[in-house]
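Now produce a polypeptide, keeping tokens residue-aligned:
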Amino acid sequence: MVGYVGRRLLQLIPVLLGMAFIVFMMIRAIPGNPAQVILGQQATPEAVAAMNEKLGLDKPWYSQFFHYLGGILKGDLGQSMRTRLPVADEIWPHLAATLELAIFAIIIAVVIGMNAGIISAWFQNSWFDYTAMILALVGVSMPIFWLGLLGQWGIAIELGWLPTSGREEVRDPVHAITHLYVIDTILQGRFDQLGQVLRHLVLPGFALATIPMAIIARMTRSSMLEVMRSDYIRTARAKGQKMFWVVYKHALKNAIIPVLTVIGLQMGMLLGGAILTETIFAWPGIGRYIYEAINFRDYPVIQSGILVVAFIFVMINLVVDLLYGLIDARIKYD
């Protein structure tokens, strides 16, 4: 397994280099000059030229790219054109916010989606099966922004059960240590704040989890139905084992491999596609951070933000591949 991990990590190098080059070229195709955006439309051509020189935008594109690439190899993600602060210092609080939201959402999606799929396969063609699959179809089809706005209106505004936006109470802000507020409140023993942080997570978390939950439910049902028809399942049932243990111990273990693949892909999609949820719920995540950087043509922030998200996506896929071998002993890597 060590050799496999080493090979996969080496494969990351051309992937990330290619991603860095593609992003570098694409963002420079965006209309607008960062120096003009920073100085305003009333800036003189001389001032814009001076700002371009200060930002290094007057150099050829290949010189800018290799300068940026050299910084990455040294662990330097560059400096924001807008705030003049190191991107490495700015990006983590936003990335932590998205990670917390994505992890919360994927837990909801896995717990509800997998159990819905298992029970649907267990009681195939029952009322629960039809209801769960209809809801899964609706969940896949429902736009996140509509679901988020509906939740805000119905649960937060009309019923007043949950906050409408943000990560924390404005009057009692969380003292950030890791910037993962759930962990920070536990480390500080502030369980009253922990309750507030979880309340802020519920609405955006469920909105973000809807589509992955539906996909996981459908995949779990399909995979479980295939396994439930196997001879060893019929043998286990013929021996008198309780159906619960047959389903959750024997069938699920062999049906979970394709489901695990979907979970890994969905986790990666949540990290990169949370911008709508973050915008609706004013969640200060990496998606909003990159979106605002695009509006300001802040090249270092856009490049580094997308590169970090791509790196996490690839690492999630690596972890999922390694989990295959832990779950199914027949899968060997060396």
The mean pLDDT is 82. The chain has two domains: 2-73, 91-327. The CA atoms of residues 179 and 327 lie 32 Å apart.
